[in-house]
């Protein structure tokens, strides 16, 4: 169930297949979350985000169907947002303290953590108690699954290029906005755009893995940086709204200081990585990705490249032999000058004779 388009299917077939896979997976997790409810809910929300990225790839084709599908996936995810936020914020706070342990009063900050843990526990109990929001999310996704076959998709690569360019361009704009007038809202919006472009590159990664796999990783890194920054912004708001729930003024003051330092670092890292990821114009970026897709269709899968020894390693297992064993083989073959050869030359000389064990 990899989130990737395949060469042996049309663009429209691939989009429908991936949509149905993600919807079926999400509905199944809501029906039977298993013992780890936290992971199940996280995976459902992740599928909803992947689906929103998917429909953005072919947005120009879908018209009103895009708006309906995107809203459905957004609303289903929001039904589970309180649960996700409670657990994600607790995890983020733990990461924050661990990253600045030398400057953190762990005992004092334990009071803050206690408030966050209580919220996470309450969220878990709500979901495990058949919270109606779970049922609403399931209903939304079930209706969406039935509608996938009616999506008006084509196999026009220009549509894909337009979808890629629009999303990438919006991310590029938010990078510039965040540098000109930083705000929580701009960074949060940039995070969403970066994540959607990450999904687009993931969908196409098999078209040119040597180029696109590193790009997938870097957009993932950017999404993580901006995601952590957003979670820290949410923590700031929660602490300010009800400091007594998190231990009072002293613990909150220390937590706020840690957050401010960490956010400044995360934003600097995001700007410097983003400046490199968004160096192309939207049209150039989209044209390049679509060209990889077209090359894939025309020439087939990318093959491994490098030296012959890397492409077709010998089956003689000489590389696994000790030097003593290699000298013995060379002696049996009466290879001249063997006593002065190093290991690499010995192996090459033996292979040059066409030697095979047996």
Could you characterize what this model shows?
This protein is an all-alpha fold and 358 residues long. The protein is built from 15 helices and no strands. Helix 1 (11-31) runs antiparallel to helix 2 and helix 10 packs antiparallel against helix 11. The longest helix is centred in the middle third of the chain and has 33 residues, at 209-241. The chain is globular, with a radius of gyration of 27 Å.
Relevant terms:
globular, single chain, mainly alpha, 75% helix
Following the backbone from N to C, one meets helices and strands in this order, namely: HHHHHHHHHHHHHHH
Overall number of strands? 0
Question: What is the subunit arrangement here?
Answer: single chain
Structural class: mainly alpha
Largest sheet: none
As residue ranges, the low-confidence spans are: none
Measured between the Cα atoms of the first and last residue, the distance is: 45 Å
What helical percentage do the residues reach? over 70%
Shape: globular
Radius of gyration: 27 Å
Report the total helices. Answer: 15
Please give a quick description of this structure.
By secondary structure, the protein is mainly α. Helices cover 75% and strands 0% of the residues.
How does the SSE layout of this entry go?
Blueprint: H1 11-31, H2 37-57, H3 59-62, H4 64-79, H5 81-99, H6 106-128, H7 132-147, H8 157-180, H9 184-204, H10 209-241, H11 249-277, H12 282-299, H13 308-311, H14 323-332, H15 343-352
